[in-house]
Amino acid sequence: MSKLNLIYSGSVKDIYQSTENNHLFFEFSDRYSVFDWGQMPDLIEGKGEALAFMGKFFFDYLSKSSTFKNIQKPEALSDTNWEKMLSTSAMKRLEAKGMKSHFISQDKNRLEVLAVQVLRPSFEIQNDTKKWKYDYTSATTDALVPLEVIFRFGMPNGSSLVKRLEKNYLDEIGLEKQPKENTLFENVVIEFSTKLEPVDRYLTYTEAKSIAGLNEAEFSDLINTTKLLAVALQNLFAQLEIDLWDGKFEFAFGKSREFILVDSIGIDELRLISRGKHLSKEFLRQYYRDSSWYKASEEAKKAAAKNPRLDWKQYCVNELGEKPQKLDSVHYQKAKDLYCSLCNEIALSLEQRPPFKDVTAFDLFLKNF
Q1: How many whole angstroms separate alpha carbon 255 and alpha carbon 62?
Q2: Are strands 103-107 and 13-18 parallel, antiparallel or unpaired?
């Protein structure tokens, strides 16, 4: 095996670069992060390996044309919106070839992937508005699309969409009326946020097209591709009697400027609910949401939004005197069981061998979760 150089250490995974080829290795750790804080004070045993297996399972599942040939309409989607999705060029491409990704292989808690270049924006303050302006270099091929692409089947409690219910924005994302919490939509809603700025911010469609350098046809294709990938995942979880409410994907431009699925997909990127219970990182978010640390972190983010050079985490600790505490023993055990038990259940649904032994069966886990 070629020598690997550590090029990035993140809150939940480390990235290594091969010295022999254009391959990266994502090493998923047992660390976890909520609310963009970075590494939290606990390690959740088995989490890293579970996320690596999930990444492999989902990349393989979405790469198959049969996944899309057998795709089923989610119950809440209107017939009209479903027919529109099926008639798109994105659907024809996915039925013929499946979804291309940068995934190569998986070994324990590592994913081997093809590297893509990342063109980071520069920024400067605008004297007339006192706001920060980001200057993006539009990629042509073989580079990261600088967006997080968010899909939503509905608006459960805790959804950030509640903060963005202005009429013009609802029209833009295809909602004909004000949504209510805990209701499903008749369409798959797509939103965009920044990926490469100090604090993620939601974007209008015009802003998203601009910073990613997309023309109208490409932008439409990105939206339609995301909707179909989301429905494919929804179908998979529906077999497990789990509701997929929302999630996010990341993409890169391929050599012919086609979209390629990148980063990874796991329950940290998805909001999953079964029998009223959150089977994703939202479970951990809920644990911390009422804490004094969370309230201080939100205040620190607002300060950083006015000054991107401000380290909001250091501000939270040093100026506001707050940092996150460890999980209590009950929530720690639930978090540990969540990742490994659900990973095994996903494996079984895809006719793969469950990777974890001596783990609570998923039905029993869910009953006691």
Answers
A1: 20
A2: unpaired
Distance (Å, whole) CA 175 – CA 359:
42
What contacts 109, CB < 8 A, 6 or more positions away? 27, 28, 29, 48, 49, 51, 52
Per DSSP, 240 falls in state T
The C-alpha atoms of residue 19 and residue 7 are separated, in whole angstroms, by 12
Contacts for 16-19 with beta carbons within 8 Å, 24 or more apart? 17/115
Q: Which domains does the chain have, with CATH numbers?
A: 4-289+328-368 (3.30.470.20)
Per-residue tokens: 100: 């291309």
DSSP codes of every residue in 98-160 = ---BSEEEEETTEEEEE--B--PPEEEEETTTTEEEEE-----SSEE-SEEEEEEEEE-TT-G
Split the chain (369 residues) into runs of 10 and give each run's mean pLDDT: 85 92 95 91 95 98 98 97 98 98 97 92 69 75 93 92 91 91 95 89 94 95 98 97 97 94 94 92 89 96 88 96 94 92 96 93 91
> What long-range pairs does 236-242 form, CB within 8 A, spacing at least 24?
236/61, 236/346, 236/349, 236/350, 237/272, 238/74, 239/349, 240/274, 240/345, 240/346, 240/349, 240/362, 241/274, 242/272, 242/273, 242/274, 242/279
